[in-house]
Amino acid sequence: MTLHHDVFGRTDGGAPTLILSSGLGGSGGYWAPQIEALAPHFRVVTYDHRGTNRSGGAGQDTIAAMADDVLEIAEAIGAEHFHFMGHALGGLIGLDLALRPVSPTRSLVLVNAWGRADPHSGRCFDTRITLLEKAGVEAFVNAQPLFLYPAAWMAENAARLEAEVAHGIAHFQGRETVLSRIKALRAFDMEARLGEVAVPTLVVAAKDDLLVPYTRSVNLAERIGGARLALADHGAHAVNITEAAWFDAAVVSFFASLEGTRSP
What we know:
The protein has 264 residues and is α/β, with parallel strands linked by helices. 45% of the residues lie in helices and 15% in strands. Strand 6, helix 9 (214-223) and strand 7 (228-232) form a beta-alpha-beta unit. Helix 4 packs antiparallel against helix 5 (137-148) and helix 5 packs across helix 7 (158-170). The longest helix has 17 residues, at 119-135. It starts with a strand and ends in an 8-residue tail after the last helix.
């Protein structure tokens, strides 16, 4: 089963492919703020993770299985190699792909990701699980923005958040899918292998991320040979949304430095 995916941007035969992978929510629509900036440079592919949004199937409890899904999509679109950008859980998928014996990745962008989950993140996930199991779906979804966005940004975007929460409740991915995906990201541990990542890597983080301490990203940048670090003072976990202009500039600059990713 090929998961639901959308393709944007370049259509010429020489266009490099960039696959974007979202976090726990799993929706390809998460990357909407980035499409305009990336489309002139790539064939951009977004997708809904298995069991989320428009993709069917049950949720998976290993990052490796989620990475296999990316390979299935790549095969479906005829991409033997690709660049990869992942947010949080999506970043773990990128690390799994980059560390495979024969890796299809040509570069990585890791956004608020980690090699091993911090205990603080575990505390946040415990809280979210308790909300889901004790208070229900509506409470779980209503709390989600607190882990994603800065308070001031939420205050300024109240109508947007109201619509986002309503959509999240109406299209909730299901208790078992959420729990299996949290299990996967908590079990992921590639800390000892970060030095084996052999592709150009950009690590992006925000200092005010409530869910994932930015020090996890600093660690990634220090442990992955030649990795670059783009660190925002503000923006929180969803920094690509709340500070989209800064984020897009950092990502486009990174890709512009790589051979084979410039616009014709």
